TrEMBL record, chain A:
GO terms for molecular function: DNA binding; DNA-directed RNA polymerase activity; protein dimerization activity. Residues 23-96 form the DNA-directed RNA polymerase RBP11-like dimerisation domain. It comes from the Eukaryota. GO terms for cellular component: RNA polymerase I complex; RNA polymerase III complex. Belongs to the archaeal Rpo11/eukaryotic RPB11/RPC19 RNA polymerase subunit family. Transmembrane segments: none annotated. It is found in: Nucleus. Keywords: DNA-directed RNA polymerase, Nucleus, Transcription. One of its GO terms (biological process) is cartilage development. It comes from Cottoperca gobio (Frogmouth). This is DNA-directed RNA polymerases I and III subunit RPAC2.
From TrEMBL, chain B:
Belongs to the archaeal Rpo3/eukaryotic RPB3 RNA polymerase subunit family. GO terms for cellular component: cytosol; nucleoplasm; RNA polymerase I complex; RNA polymerase III complex. GO terms for molecular function: DNA binding; DNA-directed RNA polymerase activity; protein dimerization activity. DNA-dependent RNA polymerase catalyzes the transcription of DNA into RNA using the four ribonucleoside triphosphates as substrates. Common component of RNA polymerases I and III which synthesize ribosomal RNA precursors and short non-coding RNAs including 5S rRNA, snRNAs, tRNAs and miRNAs, respectively. POLR1C/RPAC1 is part of the polymerase core and may function as a clamp element that moves to open and close the cleft. InterPro entries: DNA-dir_RNA_pol_30-40kDasu_CS (IPR001514), DNA-dir_RNA_pol_insert (IPR011262), DNA-dir_RNA_pol_RpoA/D/Rpb3 (IPR011263), RBP11-like (IPR036603), RNAP_Rpo3/Rpb3/RPAC1 (IPR022842), RNAPI/III_AC40 (IPR033901), RNApol_insert_sf (IPR036643), Rpo3/RPB3_RNA_Pol_subunit (IPR050518). This is DNA-directed RNA polymerases I and III subunit RPAC1. Keywords: Acetylation, Cytoplasm, DNA-directed RNA polymerase, Nucleus, Transcription. It comes from Cottoperca gobio (Frogmouth). It holds the Pfam family RNA_pol_A_bac. Residues 61-344 form the DNA-directed RNA polymerase RpoA/D/Rpb3-type domain. CDD domains: RNAP_I_II_AC40.
Amino acid sequence: MAVEGEKKPVLEMVQADGADEGCVTFVFHDEDHTLGNSLRYMIMKTVDVDFCGYTITHPSESKINFRIQTRGGIPATEPLRRGLNELSSVSQHVLNTFQARVNEFKERQEQPME
Amino acid sequence: MAATMSNVEEIRNRVILGEFDVKNVHSSDFPGNYPGYDDTWNMQKFQKNFRIDVVHLDENSMEFDMVGIDPAIANAFRRILLAEVPTMAIEKVFVYNNTSIVQDEVLAQRLGLVPIKADPRLFEYRNAGEESAEEEGSEIDTIQLQLKIKCSRNPRASKDSSDPRELYLNHMVYSRDITWVPIGNQADVFADSVIGPVHDDILIAQLRPGQELDIIMNCVKGVGKDHAKFSPVATASYRLLPEITLLELVEGEKAERLKRCFSRGVIDIEDVNGKKVAKVVNSRLDTCSREVLRHDDLKDVVKLGRLRDHFIFTVESTGILPPDVLVTEAIQVLMVKCQRFLNELDSTNME
């Protein structure tokens, strides 16, 4: 276990005995399918990742177990970091596109009024 | 069964609606799944294929198409809209007097669900710790509202009247009777935006002469996963764009019947050399009822599918924020989530 914060832990890393750093279960606290599934999709898009999946431990617990197994001895934190960065930039692109389209739509609506 | 090239394209891009099953439901475009396809993540490719078209937008609802994105991410936006975009709602109700027949707890529940028009972006979350539970709210995290009303007889009512609307004054308590009590500098800060219920005609309680309500309410910032009263949307949903393909020429009585199997406006009947021929004009309008598959002579002439990456989003706001603002907020919430774990990952690796 890596982070055992004094207050509320946000992220924990769990590894089986003898497992290398390519096989890690991350525990995301206060998360659910929203981040779990979208991040799983982004990480599964990476070639070096052998397996990526998540479970919600129990309906009354607000945390997910997020498992990553990599190929070729790459540490599991690497695809996780890349996945988070990519998901963030995808969201940024969606946001920019959305705002541009909404502004266009509003301008188009105003014009016929005049 | 060997998958041919066109078959693979169909598995990757279409959800097929069959008579007894729905096929190709899950995304399968991952590296290693299909020989000859490069399915690794490619930002340029994504940006090239991604598009959004706004179809409808007004102050309460919007419809837009989001094309070229995986269901996992589109669903994240939908889930965030429902449960993680913050709003202000009544959380604490202090009942100083309630002589109406509505019990205190029922009244408090009803008040909690009234949408409050206040920009949640201008407020902070109240600390959830035990030590602060008893603390008074401050101007940055709390809105105070008051409901003080008493019912009385109408002295001007006619003697033989039996209509409560004429007999009594204030016998219906509406959300418009809730008034805002500014705390600290709130009166100056929110001078140009009136804080109060979004709708002024929500019936809260009914009174009879002599009964009264004297209530102070505290609104706090919260998210829909804590309680549905914080949810900023009446509904937020998406559906996939339907695709209807006619595999052979359908004419005459069959064409008329085919037309009736779908929603209005989906199939049109054209006159070709004196014959009535069915044609798909707008598959978007279809509800995908699959009625056509119940007709034995029609089920093999159509192919029903849905485009896997074409999402038709519908967002209906409760009126607190305009729907386009809600969507931008939702996208930002997902980015904040990513950043939160990136920061955590960085601080972990330092140790």
